[in-house]
Amino acid sequence: GIVCDRCGVEVTSAKVRRERMGHIELAAPVTHIWYFKGIPSRMGLVLDMSPRSLEEIIYFASYVVVDPGDAPVEKKRLLTEREYRDLKKEYGANFKAGMGAEAIKELLADVDLAGEAAALKAELQEATGQKRVRAVRRLDIIEAFLQSDNKPEWMVMDVIPVIPPDLRPMVQLEGGRFATSDLNDLYRRVINRNNRLKRLFDLHAPGIIVQNEKRMLQEAVDALMDNGRRGRPVAGPGNRPLKSLSHMLKGKQGR
C-alpha cells in the first residue's frame, strides 16, 4: 500500500493494469444503446413503444407524459414543446412530462412486470396475427426480467465502467508522438462532456443549454458502447471511424 510521493500512484504489481477497472459517474442518466437500438428493441418491448418514439424522447426531440395527473392525455404520449408548455400551464403541479433518459428511467421504473405478464397471457388467448407475435415477444422479455430478478430501469445507466489501462494501450512513437487505442478518445469525449454538464448544473444554466449537453453526453456514451449503431460514426484522424467497445468484442469466440 505504498504510494509514490511524486505522482500519487500506488506501488503494486504490473498485472493490476490488466485487471483493475475504473468508473465514470455521470451527471445525468443515459440509456444503453444495445437495449434501445437492438433488434428487437428491448426497451421498446417493455414500454410497448416504438423505437422511433423512444429515439425522439432519448435525444430530446419530444416530451413524453410520465404522469398525466388531471390532464386529458394518456401516459407515454409524445408531446411537442408547445403542447407541453400549454398543459403545464393549465394543469400545473400534478402533470408531469419529461425528455431524455431520465424520463425513460421513470417510465421503466413504473412498469408492473407481474401485472403486464398476466395481461399479456390473457391477451394471447384471443390475439392473432401481428398482435400475437408482438404479445409473445413482450411476454418473453417481461418473463426474463421476472426470472432473473433484474429491474427494467437498469437499462438506463448512471455509472459507466472504464476498462483497465492495458486493454486500451498508449504507446510513444519516435519523434514524441503517441499512438493510442480509439477507446481512449471515446472515453475522453464522455469525460469532457460529463464535466461540462456538471459545470452547467453548477452555473444554473438555461434549460435548453443543459438539454443540449445531456443529448451530447448520450451521443458520446453511444459512440463508446457501439460507434456507428445510430447514424454516422464518430471519426478520428483521417476520417476513420473509431473502434468502440462493441467492435472490440465482435468476432470473439471464447477461449
UniProtKB/TrEMBL annotation:
Q: Which GO terms describe its cellular component?
A: DNA-directed RNA polymerase complex
Which SMART domains does the entry link to? RPOLA_N
User: What Enzyme Commission number(s) apply to this enzyme?
Assistant: 2.7.7.6
GO-annotated molecular function: DNA binding; DNA-directed RNA polymerase activity; metal ion binding
Q: What class of enzyme is it?
A: transferase
Q: Which GO terms describe its biological process?
A: DNA-templated transcription
- Domain RNA polymerase N-terminal, by residue range, is 153-255
Reactions catalysed according to its record: RNA(n) + a ribonucleoside 5'-triphosphate = RNA(n+1) + diphosphate
Residue segments, region Disordered: 228-255
Keywords, comma-separated and alphabetical: DNA-directed RNA polymerase, Metal-binding, Nucleotidyltransferase, Transcription, Transferase
**Cross-referenced InterPro entries, in alphabetical order?**
DNA-dir_RpoC_beta_prime, RNA_pol_N, RNA_pol_Rpb1_1
What family does the database annotate? Belongs to the RNA polymerase beta' chain family.
Tell me the function of this protein: DNA-dependent RNA polymerase catalyzes the transcription of DNA into RNA using the four ribonucleoside triphosphates as substrates.
Q: What is this protein's name?
A: DNA-directed RNA polymerase subunit
* Taxonomic source organism: Fructobacillus sp
